[in-house]
Fold this protein.
Amino acid sequence: MRSCDKLRLYCKSDNQTRCSDGPYSANCRHLQALDVRGCPIAKNPKHREHITLLSESLVTLNDKAIKPHERKFLVQLQMRRMQKRAVAQQAAGASHSSTSQLNLSRFGH
């Protein structure tokens, strides 16, 4: 779907096509209800969390309401995960740098 700016409801249940460029993309800013039951993406146990994070306007997913506290929790969880990754990457970079310096010092450089 290229542009679905005015789309409010999208039912793709029991559709066996891939849902990678589905209506929950950034182009569907007003999408309020989505049903992906039966889609390949629904086989992923975390599809609800992923779709909820992708669409701020989505109110129901698979006929189940997305509650504000659920969305808030998922956003906070994603932020914590991103912060942990950033810290781990910084630590890995610093560790790699100091290891390289130690290796050079062994050879008198």
Notes: The two ends are 58 Å apart (CA to CA). Strands lie at 9-11, 33-35, 60-61, 64-65. The first helix runs from residue 47 to 54.
